[in-house]
Amino acid sequence: MNTELKKELEEVREEIERLEKKDNDASMSALYLSQLYYRICPIDWDYSCEATLIKGIHHGPDIAQRINVDSSQHSRCFVGDYLWSLVPTTW
Which parts form a coiled-coil structure per UniProt (predicted)? Predict the structure, then answer.
């Protein structure tokens, strides 16, 4: 094999390793964020419901509370405010 091809092959290998590391870092970052969100506001989402429904169970510090909001009946701002209101403010 000539040296030019060897050099190109090595560059491709390095690029593959770099991309695999980047993908792994992104996966770890997404996993960390999802665990962090769950620790802050533990909600078990119901993914089997209709697309306009937001359903699940919020496991608050005192009691579990059902979530059942029809997003077609409320603004995105209302839904966001409602979900943030479930986060306890005492640490």
Answer: 2-29
